[in-house]
Amino acid sequence: MEAMLTVRLGVFIFLFQALSCGFAEEFSGLKRAKRGWVVPPINEPENSRGPWPKQLSQIKSDYASDTKMTYSITGEGADLPPVGLFTCDRITGIISVTQPFDREKKAFYQLTVYAVGEGTIKEKPMDIIINVIDMNDNRPQFTQNPFSGHVPDAAPKDYEFMTVTATDADDPNTDNGDVRYTIISQNPPLPKPNMFDINTITGGIRVIEEGLDREKCSNYTLIIQAADMQGNGLTTSGTAVITVTDSNDNAPQFEQTTHKASVPENQVGAEVVKLAVTDGDDPRSPAWSTKYKIISGDEGGFFNVSTGPSQLEGIITTVKPLDFEENKQYILSVTVENEDPFISPLPTSTATVTVNVEDDEQE
Prior knowledge:
Elements: H1 2-30, E1 42-45, E2 54-58, E3 70-75, E4 86-88, E5 94-97, E6 108-116, E7 126-133, E8 141-142, E9 147-152, E10 160-163, E11 166-167, E12 180-187, E13 196-198, E14 204-207, E15 219-227, H2 228-231, E16 235-245, E17 253-254, E18 258-264, E19 271-278, E20 290-296, E21 303-307, E22 313-318, E23 329-338, E24 349-358
Parallel strand pairs: 1-7, 9-16, 18-24
Antiparallel strand pairs: 2-5, 3-6, 4-5, 6-7, 8-11, 10-14, 12-15, 13-14, 15-16, 17-19, 19-22, 20-23, 21-22, 23-24
């Protein structure tokens, strides 16, 4: 009896072990949990010195532990131009690059990786990204040279009037492409050597000192610098030419403030008088050109005053026929101003014109 129990127990143990092995095979073989067929992005700096070819990464399929796998790649730099930039060892899955990268030509590459085994075993094709890491190998470049700007001579402090810009071919998201601006010199250094300042980030140029005077200094030349690495890297120089424009700080003045003229009655368009003026502002500028207005003495609207061809004279003419019997004399008050408003209140010049109407004796 004891012997029979021992045999039966042994058979049970055998059957249990056999069943256990079967379940183990089912779950470990047929139900094997496979690791992901994933390769993270590859980051490689540009301008590397090699040696070539240089290994970037190695891909490996989980199936490689069970069967022989072969690897290949396609995409730009593999089987598409530039063909041969990347290689893949069919046996080891090692991906290499054959020459230096240039991020300014291309910042990243996308390849498709394949793994094929015996029979029907194969991995689903997988995309991998190769990022080219930027190196500071490009100087900033000004978008033009020289830059030209205009500033009124009456501009207040902190008045910004022009902007210079520079570009950098390096990655703008890194310090390699972070450009900052400075002023190196100002010529002439009058009335002070630092009349202008530049915004280090935007390149905006502004006035920081009072004393601009077009009559004394009408042009300035600034040597400007752009530097990457937030101003501590590669540099380039350029020029900003500043023209000081005239502000309307001189009121026009009549050369003669009293005039007398005679005009026949019944004539329309007759020239009454020309009123000459002077102005100390920049000739031919809006601060120099003049305009005129009759402010009193012409309640009936018989006269008009316009600016003459020289821009420094007002011409009074008749626009309605005058009648000697109704009014023998008109006393007109005329003012003169510039096309541009004054930068600050200035006294205007006024001229008085006495117009005598001549009798037409034929009536």
